[in-house]
């Protein structure tokens, strides 16, 4: 009997909770968006499942069911609105909360003053003027990469994730952190292994509601595994900082020796100017001070180092590998990309390109864009709204809603991209709405590293394409894409290569 009473009480409470919810302003505003029917208190959680690996498909099915327009999902007490229009990106400046467990209060995961001041500090090292120096580093690392790949020439398929991750890490650590690393000689490095798991953990954590209840999550094995990954990331971050501190100290001593005529403030200002003009991101952080004048603590700097090291190498690696896969899949496109290389670098085909020449590789650029459209590198981004957000159609997302920018919806909108499932780089030679293609996000919280990303990806792809022809990996090697926090293939990108020089 007691059990019956208990059940009746719980059901009554749930119904009462549901009654109150439905009378709230928030609910009334959200009711303007279509969505699947909800269960009191749980919303659509039961539908999303308790194991998230299926969630991209579930979301995609919902999006199709609701006519491929903005729709809502109730994750228990949390309301998510899935937006298929990226013009809303120009407004929200809230943080990306999903990555907090890994990157603490970094520029991507903080908000308010901390976010503003760090972004301002870092932005200079991502400007056009420092790209030439960065390109020289990437070009040099490309030579090492080509030499490594040589052993696969004409042989079994090679997994490009495995080699491009360390290549991008070496390039990034040297150009943005001022530290020469050698990950390409050790692609199985513990940092690469650990960072390869972040995407899974962040995605699961984000889409499995109960895992965000700290007391429950801390009891799981997954929590302990996550802590080990975080430890490895931090160890790497502190290593980079301590190496750069030594390098920077030496660099400053050299500047002082070479400018013995300068004294006091004049010397200090010359040192500062010379270090800054080097454009190394980590130097900006190491030389900056807190509002009280004391140096920024290593813990704070390490959060930025961890974030940029991870996002910078992972996103670019995935994008480039997916481009190579498309080149192998569409030989006509590959032929055209190769011909463009011939025409842009006609004078000396084997030399390294300049930045201007990278800019002239318009067809390669269109192929990269079409790849990011059809296999979105970052398939969705989410922001928790602090204030109401009015959409262009007049509807309002109430404060507290999770606004999810859904790139699948944006990039597969047939009104904007006719025949959206067709791989057609030509479409990027036609004019597009300014917000139709924003894979690096837009507005005040857009991607800090997008210029670096374009340069590093074009330089690496240019070198690879001039050296090798790319062929599909064969039966059983077709990529199995997972649209998690970052899109990646479960079985890597396995392709055959054939030297163009033989
Ligand atoms: C193909 C490559 C890349 C893509 C598609 C990409 C995409 C994005 C997107 C969509 C965001 C917004 C995320 C959000 O709001 O939740 C973002 C933010 C960010 N990205 Fe990238 N990114 C790429 C490469 C890079 C690189 C190479 C770096 C650094 C070297 C970088 C550093 C950052 C940082 C620091 C932020 C946070 C900015 C802020 O919140 O103020 N990204 N990126």
TrEMBL record:
Identify which cofactors the protein needs according to its UniProt entry. heme
User: Please, which domain of life does this record's source organism belong to?
Assistant: Eukaryota
Q: Which PROSITE patterns match?
A: CYTOCHROME_P450 (PS00086)
Q: What is its main location?
A: endoplasmic reticulum
Q: Name one GO cellular component term.
A: endoplasmic reticulum membrane
Subcellular localization, as worded in the UniProt entry:
Endoplasmic reticulum membrane; Microsome membrane
Q: Which GO terms describe its molecular function?
A: heme binding; iron ion binding; monooxygenase activity; oxidoreductase activity, acting on paired donors, with incorporation or reduction of molecular oxygen
Per UniProt, heme binds at 447
Q: Which family does it belong to?
A: Belongs to the cytochrome P450 family.
What name does UniProt use for this protein? Cytochrome P450 4c3
- From what organism does this protein derive? Eumeta variegata
Name of encoding gene: Cyp4c3
